């Protein structure tokens, strides 16, 4: 058996980037031999094993043949006679289809190094069209490497357009699409993920709510990335200009975590309201109540921070953010439990807490 370092580790090593994960392909072996050597099998659809010491992944060289719709419709052959080149042929992009032998020799049958130097993301072969998830993977790599000057090759974009037109993107599971999306949101240029999908005519199946042209939300998303906002905040920035119903529908289609959904809905509901200072304590209290700032003050702070990216850094937004944060701190200082024990009953308690919070907020206002 022969082992080769493959994929992202080889690519990033050649780019001079930090390599954090290493994956290997094993040629000329069988599941039985791998188990005998102490490896642990983890792959369900094809044989993938964990090294007994390093816990790094070792996959048997394999070929795949399309057998049905979607990204799971494949027949896999991982027999010992599958060659390294045959394994690399099934990969998505030439820059991901390189391998390095144990002696350091670079194996590059599809000119991935040349494409790295040319800053081009190019499909490897006709097999690219067989996996609709690759449309989103290419867009993610574009978002990761755009700052290095990488662009998607025109022929690859054309293939992505064909795949979108075929209807196969709709066969993907929400979990897989969200996984690519969430990873892309945290890339250096997350807006490029969406512009790449837009160029491929691939937004409609999963992101139909985004406006066309959506340049404003893309600019806001770029600001969110520059500000190092987290995943939920970046998704909320993207969706802040949508109606609450549209934002909720988009997140539900993608099956985002509830933490993401909740912040997205809050941003779509309150982004415009909190973009300039409010004029009275009752109006401010209505925002704090609606955003459930009492139980989730940290989430409300997230909302204020992301809204600065949505609206751009300007005096009004900064003033509104400071006003609301100060108001929240003031209102939180009201001892609601003491009011509840003061002898009042039912609605009287609610009204007294409300009045006390309004007074605290107004006293905090300049």
TrEMBL record:
Mg(2+) binds at residues 21, 23. GO terms for molecular function: ATP binding; CCA tRNA nucleotidyltransferase activity; magnesium ion binding; tRNA binding. ATP binds at residues 8, 11, 91, 137, 140. Residues 149-210 form the tRNA nucleotidyltransferase/poly(A) polymerase RNA and SrmB- binding domain. Its cofactor is Mg(2+). It catalyses: a tRNA with a 3' CCA end + 2 CTP + ATP = a tRNA with a 3' CCACCA end + 3 diphosphate; a tRNA precursor + 2 CTP + ATP = a tRNA with a 3' CCA end + 3 diphosphate. Pfam families: PolyA_pol, PolyA_pol_RNAbd. Keywords: ATP-binding, Magnesium, Metal-binding, Nucleotide-binding, Nucleotidyltransferase, RNA repair, RNA-binding, Transferase, tRNA processing. Its EC number is 2.7.7.72. Gene3D superfamilies: Beta Polymerase, domain 2 (3.30.460.10), cca-adding enzyme, domain 2 (1.10.3090.10). CTP binds at residues 8, 11, 91, 137, 140. One of its GO terms (biological process) is tRNA 3'-terminal CCA addition. Residues 3-122 form the Poly A polymerase head domain. It is an enzyme of class 2 (transferase). A single active site specifically recognizes both ATP and CTP and is responsible for their addition. Catalyzes the addition and repair of the essential 3'-terminal CCA sequence in tRNAs without using a nucleic acid template. Adds these three nucleotides in the order of C, C, and A to the tRNA nucleotide-73, using CTP and ATP as substrates and producing inorganic pyrophosphate. tRNA 3'-terminal CCA addition is required both for tRNA processing and repair. Also involved in tRNA surveillance by mediating tandem CCA addition to generate a CCACCA at the 3' terminus of unstable tRNAs. While stable tRNAs receive only 3'-terminal CCA, unstable tRNAs are marked with CCACCA and rapidly degraded. Belongs to the tRNA nucleotidyltransferase/poly(A) polymerase family. Bacterial CCA-adding enzyme type 2 subfamily. This is CCA-adding enzyme. It comes from Alteromonas halophila.
């Amino acid at each position: 058996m022969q082992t080769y370092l493959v994929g992202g580790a080889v690519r990033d090593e050649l780019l001079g980037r930090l390599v954090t994960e290493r994956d290997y392909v094993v040629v000329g072996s069988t599941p039985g031999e791998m188990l005998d050597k102490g490896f642990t099998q983890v792959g369900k659809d094809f044989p993938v094993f964990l090294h007994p010491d390093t816990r790094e992944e070792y996959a048997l060289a394999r070929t795949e043949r399309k057998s049905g719709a979607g990204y799971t419709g494949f027949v896999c052959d991982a027999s010992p006679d599958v060659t390294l080149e045959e394994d690399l042929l099934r990969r998505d992009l030439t820059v991901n289809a390189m391998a390095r032998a144990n002696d350091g020799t670079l194996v590059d049958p599809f000119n991935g190094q040349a494409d790295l130097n040319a800053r081009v993301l190019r499909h490897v072969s006709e097999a690219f069209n067989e996996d609709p998830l690759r449309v989103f993977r290419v867009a993610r790599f574009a978002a990761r490497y755009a700052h290095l000057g990488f662009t998607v090759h025109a022929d690859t974009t054309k293939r992505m357009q064909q795949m979108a037109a075929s209807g196969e993107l709709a066969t993907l599971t929400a979990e897989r699409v969200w996984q690519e999306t969430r990873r892309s949101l945290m890339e250096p240029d997350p807006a490029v993920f969406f512009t790449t999908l837009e160029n491929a005519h691939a937004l409609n199946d999963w992101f139909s709510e985004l406006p066309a042209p959506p340049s404003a939300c893309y600019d806001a998303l770029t600001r969110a990335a520059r500000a190092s906002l987290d995943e939920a905040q970046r998704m909320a920035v993207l969706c802040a200009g949508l109606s609450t119903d549209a934002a909720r529908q988009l997140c539900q289609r993608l099956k985002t975590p509830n933490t993401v959904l909740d912040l997205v809905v809050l941003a779509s509901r309150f982004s415009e309201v909190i973009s300039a200072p409010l004029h009275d304590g009752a109006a401010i209290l209505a925002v704090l109540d609606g955003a459930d700032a009492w139980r989730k003050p940290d989430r409300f702070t997230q909302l204020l921070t992301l809204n600065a990216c949505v609206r751009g850094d300007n005096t009004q937004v900064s003033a509104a953010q400071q006003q609301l944060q100060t108001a929240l701190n003031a209102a939180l200082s009201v001892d609601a439990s003491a009011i509840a024990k003061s002898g009042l009953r039912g609605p009287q308690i609610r009204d007294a807490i409300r009045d006390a919070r309004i007074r605290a907020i107004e006293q905090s206002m300049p």
